[in-house]
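$ ./design --mode recover --in tokens.txt
reading tokens...
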């Protein structure tokens, strides 16, 4: 008999478990996969929590009022009490994690909020990331860590901050300095992890130190009820009893049936963890839970490569590239927040760039000036001239679009879609490209057209919860003993995305709130 069972071992679940275990409650984490960490371990590891101590230590001014104004502006459709619960508990959650795990965090310099010009937005950003984590603190448990989304060569340690400058390695002195710093880390004693790998490993180390039990390869089959309340879980043919259950098993991005039902899309373009098949959400629904945001995901334009989708960050913001629809017309600010780019897509989409772009910037992990792999031929078209590229990709309006785009690029003013106007746009731009770091003409062949699909980091719809992370029925009543956090719950971000880490920040915060409510603790 356990006091608490947490279903899922991502950041939301491990934060909840850490909270209850630290309060002396007998806590069990069950994880469907054979590895812990879920989508957290595959992520960039950024955390968006306004007004926290890490930002204050970095000299970044913020206030509860600014943060509240920002969320009200961009996520006003989310109940105000949920937004406020996140903002109130977020800083305390982060302080708790820092106090009870080996994790340390730092500000990601200049990584703007995704809508920095909105009321309360921060042009210099609120995102933080884990500092490199020494795996000695984790011991043999390291072997059970979910692999990263994009593996790096052995000994190479790259942070979110590094990534921005490594994309400019041929263009900016900081790119070269960053590469040298990354190389030098290879000689540090011990193995180190960064980004989502560091976050997941650090949380697991905290659980290990407090003695919380983690069972891998243990899938949730259903919830167990006694006397009208949740009293444990069914895992295969076993019932595991507990006074409280926290569902933090990720979204349903790898459930073909659910995605077709709610989003009219398949599962092939997500980068979420393979075990995320909506088990927690459907178990909650069988228990009478209300759901919300089931039609939405943490979308991002992606390239459908043979090894799986590549989620585009810097590639679409750098000068010398543009996005076009199936006719060859631009339809969006290419540098806009990735969720907005996908929401603007209506069908076939191509990222078009020239040889100057290819010679200056990495693309989908391939360094500048190197040929793109031939095995990508189903996703990448090339041609000596724009005319031939337009014909091969069947883009009748491409030539006129590029002529217009080149004129705007030379002037540095995107009159059509305002690319480069926002501080967020410019974060992944090229500061040595003038007059606009995001705009550059396409003039030099060969030219490229790359297929773009609506990828995602995971789904964001799930069980409705209250300010204490308790799961709610349609009538607003609480399902006793049941909690949810992370992508198993309907996101406090609603249909928007506040900034880098606005998945993990709220996930951890509502996991923390669940743990506090269960344990009777205070912030």
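writing sequence...
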């Amino acid at each position: 008999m356990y006091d608490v069972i947490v279903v899922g071992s991502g950041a939301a679940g491990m934060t909840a478990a850490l909270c209850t275990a630290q309060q002396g409650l007998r806590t069990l984490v069950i994880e469907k996969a054979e590895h812990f960490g879920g989508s957290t371990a595959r992520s960039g590891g950024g955390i968006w929590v306004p007004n926290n101590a890490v930002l204050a230590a970095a000299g970044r001014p913020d206030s509860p009022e600014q943060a509240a104004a920002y969320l009200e502006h961009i996520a006003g459709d989310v109940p105000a009490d949920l937004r406020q619960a996140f903002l109130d508990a977020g800083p305390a959650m982060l302080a708790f994690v820092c106090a009870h795990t080996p994790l340390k965090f730092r500000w990601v310099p200049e990584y703007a909020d995704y809508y920095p010009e909105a009321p309360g937005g921060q042009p210099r950003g609120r995102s933080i990331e884990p500092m490199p984590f020494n795996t000695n603190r984790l011991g043999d448990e390291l072997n059970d860590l979910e692999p990263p989304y994009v593996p790096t060569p052995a000994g190479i340690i790259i942070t979110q901050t590094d990534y921005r400058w490594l994309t400019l390695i041929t263009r900016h002195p900081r790119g070269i300095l960053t590469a040298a710093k990354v190389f030098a880390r290879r000689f540090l004693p011990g193995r180190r992890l960064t980004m989502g790998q560091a976050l997941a490993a650090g949380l697991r180390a905290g659980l290990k130190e407090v003695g919380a039990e983690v069972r891998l390869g243990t899938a949730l089959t259903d919830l167990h009820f006694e006397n009208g309340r949740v009293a444990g879980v069914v895992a295969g043919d076993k019932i595991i009893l507990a006074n409280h259950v926290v569902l933090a098993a990720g979204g349903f991005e790898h459930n073909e049936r659910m995605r077709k039902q709610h989003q009219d899309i398949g599962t092939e373009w997500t980068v979420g963890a393979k075990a995320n098949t909506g088990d927690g959400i459907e178990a909650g629904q069988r228990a009478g839970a209300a759901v919300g945001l089931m039609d939405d995901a943490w979308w991002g334009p992606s390239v459908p490569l043979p090894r799986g989708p590549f989620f585009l960050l810097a590639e679409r913001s750098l000068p010398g590239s543009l996005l076009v629809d199936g006719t060859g017309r631009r339809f969006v600010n290419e540098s806009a927040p990735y969720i907005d780019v996908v929401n603007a897509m209506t069908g076939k989409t191509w990222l078009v760039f020239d040889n100057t772009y290819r010679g200056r910037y990495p693309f989908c992990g391939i360094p500048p000036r190197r040929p793109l792999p031939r095995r990508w031929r189903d996703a990448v078209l090339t041609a000596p001239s724009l005319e031939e590229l337009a014909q091969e990709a069947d883009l009748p309006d491409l030539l006129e679009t590029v002529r217009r785009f080149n004129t705007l690029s030379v002037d540095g003013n995107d009159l059509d879609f305002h690319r480069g106007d926002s501080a967020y746009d410019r974060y992944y731009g090229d500061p040595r490209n003038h007059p606009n770091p995001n705009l550059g003409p396409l003039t030099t062949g060969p030219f490229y057209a790359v297929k773009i699909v609506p990828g995602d980091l995971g789904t964001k719809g799930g069980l409705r919860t209250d300010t204490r992370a308790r799961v709610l029925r349609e009538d607003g009543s609480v399902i006793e003993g049941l909690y949810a956090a992370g992508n198993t719950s309907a996101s406090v971000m609603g249909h928007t995305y506040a900034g880098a880490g606005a998945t993990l920040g709220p996930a951890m915060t509502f996991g923390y709130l669940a743990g506090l409510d269960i344990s009777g603790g205070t912030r």
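exit 0
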